[in-house]
Amino acid sequence: MDEVEVRASETFLTIRCPSCKKEWKRNRKRFERIGSKYVLTCKCSCGEVFKAIHNRRRHARKACIFNGTYLHESTMKRGKMSLKDVSLSGAGLKVHSDVPLRVGDVLIVQFNMEDEEDYVVKQGVIKNVRDNYVGIEFFEQAHDKEILGSFLRE
Ligand SMILES: [Zn+2]
């Protein structure tokens, strides 16, 4: 049976059928806890049966202060930002410019981690905006092997 990682918000987990790509939400209470993972066996209306997996650790946010820049994709405007918290699946940014940012906009963020020379570059969609604090969800979750992954394991 296929195992599919879910996308997580505070209360709901978004399940995506690996076959027809249909999405739906389930309350996290409906998932069964197995070790550090939460698992729900799903049957899609297309007939596909798969296990939805929520690995909490992947989504646990860790506080940080990493400075960098962002590129607002639709206007191609750049601004300065600092990363205030990060997980493998998203980040919270404090932005230092007045490009109007809205939920659903796409940002490419680039930042330097402590003691690392290389930049980390991630693309994500804005999930919430509060004053100059912006929460984004990465299009591609970071892997454990990336430097972001080792930072989150520390
Ligand atoms: Zn389906």
Q: What is this structure, in a nutshell?
A:
This protein is mainly beta and 154 residues long. The protein has 2 domains: 2-59, no CATH class; 62-153, predicted glycosyltransferase like domains (Thrombin, subunit H). Helices cover 7% and strands 55% of the residues.
Description:
There is one protein chain. By secondary structure, the protein is mostly beta strands. The protein folds into two domains: 2-59, no CATH class; 62-153, predicted glycosyltransferase like domains (Thrombin, subunit H), CATH 2.40.10. The chain has helices at 56-59, 147-153, and strands spanning 2-5, 7-8, 12-16, 23-27, 32-34, 37-43, 49-55, 62-72, 77-86, 90-95, 106-112, 119-130, 133-138. The strands form three sheets. It has a six-stranded antiparallel beta barrel with strand order 8-9-10-13-12-11. Strands 1-7-6-5 form a four-stranded mixed β-sheet. A three-stranded antiparallel β-sheet has the order 2-3-4, with no helix packed on it. The protein is globular, with a radius of gyration of 17 Å. The structure holds zinc ion.
